[in-house]
Amino acid sequence: MSEDRSTAIIVGAGPAGSTAAYLLAKEGHEVVLVERGTTPGSKNMYGGRMYSHALNRIMPGFWEEAPVERPIAQESITFLSGDKSVSIGCQNMGWAADPYHSFTLLRAEFDAWLAAKAEEAGALLACGIRVDELLTDGGKVIGIRAGEDEMLADVVVAADGVNSILAQKAGWAKMFSPGQVATGVKQIIELPAETIGQRFQLEGNNGAARLFVGDCSKGMQGGGFLYTNKSSISLGLVINAGALQGSQAKLCDIIEDFKSNPHIAPLIEGGQVAEYSAHLVPEAGLAMAPQLYGDGMVVVGDAAGFVLNLGYTVRGMDFAIASGEAAARTIMEAKARNDFSRQGLSRYKELLSQSFVLRDLEAYRKAPEFLENQRMFKAYPELVAGLATRLFTVDGSPPVHLMKMVFGQIKQSDISLMQLVRDSLKGAIDL
Ligand SMILES: Cc1cc2nc3c(=O)[nH]c(=O)nc-3n(C[C@H](O)[C@H](O)[C@H](O)COP(=O)(O)OP(=O)(O)OC[C@H]3O[C@@H](n4cnc5c(N)ncnc54)[C@H](O)[C@@H]3O)c2cc1C
Question: How many whole angstroms from 48 Cα to the centroid of ligand 1?
């Protein structure tokens, strides 16, 4: 075992780990950032868009040098039902101007860039090393073991993503059920930049973010996403693992059906699949959060379950970055007092509560439960698409006033009026 002791060993060079490493190294602390992939980002996947606010606080104007793809100027959510679809969209050119609201990014490039920033600041980046064990002394975490190698530190930061081995080894993780996670699959489909611009009616290098509900998940809890990169499209699905387990369907078949959906096929026509990946998403929010800190260790990002999926937005990158920042600030204060005990690291939770991380997860605590409602993924998309079709159809039939049309459509649907009222109220309160 090396007797050298660094201030922090950070396990995982995703956005959470690299942010913590960057901030600590910038202040002159000895930091080792350990990553199992051959390069940071090589094992990482996500949908495709990062909200800018968290990183912009730490590195103002980061987009000037970071490998960002397109700033998002167009958002939409589309309900798919058979050959019908209804979209609610919003275009805001202000989002695609300084201070840019969000960007599409490719993780292999972005994660490598962020880890390189940590290295430039003085962190030691060690790739191709998988951490297997925590070293403990009297219940306190004092380091890590990777194969034959052991390393010591004042504090270990578990930034090892969903299903964190470190949180499990510490005995801090809760057992989660399949219903608390989703499985995501994604394809990166290459297309010329001009084709993307024309198909999505984008100005300059602006980008589009589109979410889909309904047929794309075969009525299961989940949905589809499409993000435009510079010269590729990120297209995929996120489906609740519990729902998937209970069905006969295979994700690889569902994504092929999604690609051939008449609303998607024209957008990706002629494109070449350059990448195919799959990953778990922690979806139960605070209900699945592990113990966040203890003697000698803090847990950040996906390892802590910090992801918010509201159906119309998916956020994890900004939570990862802000929790990495909170961990770094906690460790700096703990170092000044030379107190890495549970008490000494309790500041982490205070900082998370002062930032948007715990505030937003607390505010949307009931959202995961709301999204378990099966009606959201089949009956409502059918109702919305059916109603819009009636509204826009002119075929010489006798006129029907709007109210009667709405009630007529509800009557024909699988949803009772009481359910509609209850779901609307619950949605308005929980989301
Ligand atoms: C399908 C899908 C779509 C998503 N869409 C979005 C989106 O559009 N926008 C958004 O903001 N968020 C999205 N997310 C969530 C987002 O990807 C995560 O919240 C974010 O990546 C969390 O960052 P992290 O640093 O905590 O973990 P990760 O990015 O998972 O990084 C963990 C790192 O730890 C490394 N590691 C793991 N175990 C070990 C070990 N034992 N030893 C050494 N290294 C290890 C991994 O290789 C990895 O590099 C999506 C996620 C999925 C799966």
Answer: 12
